[in-house]
Amino acid sequence: MPGSPADVRLRGLIDTRGAPPDPARWRAAALVAPLFLFLAATFLAPIGAMMWRAVGDGEVAPVFARTLSALDGWDGRALPADAAYAAVVADIRQARADGTLASAATRLNYDVNGYRSLLFSTARRLPADGAADVRQALIALNPLWGERETWAAIRRAAGPVTDLYLLAALDLRRDAEGSVASAPADQSVFRTVLFRTLWIASVVTAICLALGYPAAYLLARLPEKTANPLLILILVPFWTSLLVRTAAWVVLLQREGVINAFLLGTGMTAEPLPMIYNRFAVYVAMVHILLPFMILPLYSVMRGIPAAHMRAAASLGARPFTVFRRVFLPQSAAGVAAGSLLVFIQAIGYYVTPALVGGADDQMVSYFIAFYASRTINWGMAAALSILLVAATAALFLVYRRLAGGQMPRLG
Amino acid sequence: MGRAGSRMGRVWMLAAAATMVAGAAAARDLTVVSWGGAYQDAQRQVYFKPFMDSLKTRMVEESWDGGIGVLRAKMQGGANTWDVVQVESEELVIGCEEGLFEKVDWSKYGGQDAYLKDAVHECGVGAIVYNFVLAYDADRIKDGPKNWADFWNVQKWPGKRALRKGPKTNLEFALMADGVAPADVYKTLATDAGVERAFRKLDQLKGNVVWWEKGAQPPQLLAAGEAAMVSAYNGRIGAANKTDKKNFAIVWNNSLYTIDSWVIMKGSPNKAQAESYIAYVSKPENQAKLPPLIPYGVTHKGANAAIDKAVLPQLPTAPENIASALYIDEPFWVENIDKLNQRFNAWVAR
Q: Nearest-CA distance from A23 to chain B in Å?
């Protein structure tokens, strides 16, 4: 928030070009230093290191150093020179001895399927040192060595940075010529998933607003004596573990769960309703978990709207709806914005709830981050998708700031 | 394998560390690593303790949750404290390729011919056999399904189908449901047309599928009536019948099986003891003691003869069960998993 008083003061602490350093300022800086260092060490550094993995590309270059220098100046239109074939044999032989072939093979297999076995099968039957025609020998070993794409993939992986993961996170990839192209339809998933994530988050936010606004209004209008016990009802679930609440929905919604048993028992339905492992369950559980994040900011803003304003409007002849629309609603807008932002940003990062109550086509971006981070150990893809998520959040926040005229949301 | 009991592993690791400190200069004891939980309890009873008693030797046990990265880190760190590890077939294939394991000298274990064909590998000796089977609740379905084509038949047997999330196992099931003979499944999958055919078959079932990710889920889905039929680990279905008094039925026809193997870590200082351990637990009379405790098959051809006749039909290795089963082709999956994962995720998202 450039220009706010706090900002000016903060800048004064850091920017010492003007006045000579003031001992009081140094003391203040020393006081915040531990927190700053703590955040830097536990928050900024790990996140930065993780983000770096989305673009960092250091697995192949050390292993295929000779090959890469032999490929220097290769135009990519014909097969590389014989020197490159000799170099790749030397590199594979050394990597095999050092045990470094696996990580390079894994990285190349992300780009070109089949690269892993190409390298390992070649490593098992390497032509002898100084063989007469290494090129012929390699191509006889595996015809893939006679394809430009095989060599282009090594060069694409030369590092130190790559756009492979970031492009893949947008369903794009580079072809043999090096230009960006769409991934084939049967390999494209992330655009759909990103759109779905934003859609689910929007719907959840809208439902939370529709349910939360009247509730907050009621709470804010009630005398404190009555409002406080009601607030407890909102806070108790808020304090309960997310996992517990999600599991509770599984119990309620499943095919032979509480709700279906009731519906069947009273004869309201003949067949159990499919209420879980679908989008409906995701909406229900997410709204339930996120609703307090909507109600609390709304309530705090609405509490601050003097009742006298409404009475004044009414006494000047405004009808109840006009009073609400012209006087109350504009003053509660800050709460609406804060609550919506809070709910939306949390919702787009949701993982556990959709994973437990959703079906296969209800999974959001976080699911795929977890998939790559812990299942296939492809940290590059996990980091690239995280960047996608952070970028979406940041873009949203900027839009919000533009709309709110630079004001920070009041969070309770 | 069930991924449980890593805390147990830590306790044992502490024990191992303490022993090492106590032993100071003495060489460390043979360290055997398995999968923890009920499975390792059974192994302790029939393998670890009898091994120590009969050979008057000491060994330390640990447990792990799998992952080739763990083994790589052990070797790269240079402080490998593991000698014998039970690995899944994926780790066996990759680790062997990367030179993490010692090569097997089969003459020490009675020769390759004494074991099931798929239990023999240049880097590992098969330990147990377990299957992905079709299972259903026999209390709810009287006239049950017989094969994967029936699994796909939602007209005759309405209700959801639970399958493991991911391409592995499902593409095989889909092709067999589509009439591909088990022997031709991987030949078909190796072609683009074959992959296409498998996904088209999965398309037919897509609206009726519940996906599971953890081995404990399929029996829960059956118990809750959430799914009419599931693909599941045979051991989990057997355990649900035994401990929860369920009446789940297993269709062994065209199931998929895989094998966990014992490997010796490369450069182990206890290689001779490690070999005598593997030789001990590979003897048919010793292997035969494991299945009554936990319904996994064992790998020595001579073991089945010594197994209780009441237990045998529940095992993956019973002759009538293994006859039509297909061995999961791990080299195929190591090669193609990135591409097929991506394609599967794209297919699921559509």
A: 49
**Chain A residues with CB inside 8 Å of B165's CB?**
360
Mean of the per-residue pLDDT values of chain B: 89
CA distance B211 to B130: 20
State the helix-helix crossing angle for B330-349 and B192-205, rounded to 10 degrees.
Answer: 50
Quote the distance between the C-alpha of residue B126 and its chain's center.
10
Q: Which of A80, A72, A202, A201 is nearest to A138 (CA)?
A: A80
Give the whole-angstrom CA distance, residue A246 versus residue A252: 10
Distance separating alpha carbons of residues A404 and A334, to the nearest angstrom? 8
Residues of A in contact with B95 (CB under 8 A): none
Q: What phi and psi values does residue A195 have, to the nearest 5 degrees?
A: -60, -45
The domain locations on chain A are: 25-52, 65-160, 190-403
Q: Can you tell me the distance from the alpha carbon of B345 to that of A169, in angstroms, rounded to the nearest whole number?
A: 13
Tokens of A236: 């108790």
The answer for residues whose C-beta is within 8 angstroms of residue A185's C-beta and 6 or more apart is B346
Quote the radius of gyration of chain B (alpha carbons, Å). Answer: 21
Q: What is the DSSP letter of A256?
A: T
Determine, for residues A360 and B69 on separate chains, whether the beta-carbon distance falls below 8 Å.
no
- Written as one string, the DSSP assignment of B265-285 is BTT-TTHHHHHHHHHHHTSHH
Pick the CATH number of A190-403 from 1.10.3720.10, 3.30.450.30, 3.40.1190.20, 3.30.450.40: 1.10.3720.10
Report the alpha-carbon distance of residue B288 to residue A269 in Å, rounded: 52
Q: How many CB atoms lie under 10 A from the CB of residue A29? A: 13
Per-residue tens of pLDDT for chain B, all 350 residues: 544 444 444 445 555 554 444 443 347 899 999 998 888 999 999 999 999 999 999 999 999 888 887 888 888 777 899 999 999 998 999 898 888 999 999 999 999 999 999 999 999 999 999 999 999 999 999 999 999 999 999 999 999 999 999 999 999 999 999 999 999 999 999 999 999 999 999 999 998 999 998 888 899 999 988 899 999 999 889 888 988 899 999 999 999 999 999 999 999 999 999 999 999 999 999 999 999 888 899 999 999 888 988 889 989 999 899 999 999 999 899 888 888 988 998 898 87
Beta-carbon contacts of A237 under 8 Å, excluding residues fewer than 6 positions away, are A245, A288, A292
Scanning the structure block, which residue is given the tokens 């060490």? A41
The residue of chain A nearest to residue B217, with distances taken between CA atoms, is A356
Say how far apart CA A102 and CA B302 lie, in whole Å. Answer: 38
| Chain B interface mutation, best of A108, A112, A116, A167, highest count of B Cβ atoms under 10 Å | A116
Query: CA nearest A292: which of A357, A216, A198, A227?
Result: A216
φ, ψ of residue A326 to 5 degrees: the values are -90, -25
The residue whose two tokens read 């090669």 is B335
Q: How far apart are CA A29 and CA A43, in angstroms?
A: 20
Element (H, E) at B264: strand B248-264
Single-letter amino acid code for the residue at A180 = V
How many of the other CB atoms lie within 10 Å of CB of B139?
A: 11
User: Is A188–B343 a contact, with Cβ atoms under 8 angstroms apart?
Assistant: no
- Residues of chain A in contact with residue B336, where contact means CB-CB under 8 angstroms, are 113-114
What domains are defined for chain B?
6-129+259-326 (3.40.190.10), 131-257+328-349 (3.40.190.10)
Contact (CB<8Å) A187/B337? no
Which residues of B, range 196-225, sit inside 8 Å of A by Cβ? 199, 209-211, 224-225
Torsion over CA of B274, B277, B278 and B283, rounded to 10 degrees?
A: 160
The closest alpha carbon to A357, from A298, A274, A296, A292, belongs to A274
Is the separation of the CB atoms in A370 and A314 below 8 Å? no
